Amino acid sequence: MQGLETLTSMQSLWLGKNKIEEISGIGHFALLRQLDVQNNRLSAIGAELVELTALEELYLACNAIETVRGLPEGSPLCTVDLSSNPLTSLNGIESHPTLEELWMTKSALSTYDDLEPLRSLPALTCVYLEHSPVAQRPDYRQRLVALVPTLEQLDAIMLDRT
Predict the structure, then answer these.
(1) pTM of the predicted protein model
(2) Domains along the chain?
(3) Which residues contact 114 (CB under 8 A, 6 or more apart)?
């Protein structure tokens, strides 16, 4: 991504539908709070994101990402959209304790073991997994609620905790 070097005060960057294969050239955006790289050709999140220490929202839907490795640690990340990616692993998600919403609709996650890292996210209130193999299991809703006691919304349904 060229020509962005002087825009150091940028807080939102929307790069959807640009055939981007790798996130690069944005590590100097110290104030960046929102990054949208949906509908591109990413196969990995990318190491440069670790430099985005102010990032709160990250939108990566409709790419070819299989793992959450590369999410910026130490940032106040609260929303991550990984929908419509062939996501097979959540290992590493546990290092993002501020995460409140995690959208993984149409992922490749298929077992409850795949979801085990969600257990260690104390702020997680919203998870989307609809149209993923694990969501087809008959005890899916009960298992997710037990796994993530802070959950308030699962897929498009608010949970009644009474």
Answers:
(1) 0.94
(2) 1-162 (3.80.10.10)
(3) 88, 89, 90, 134
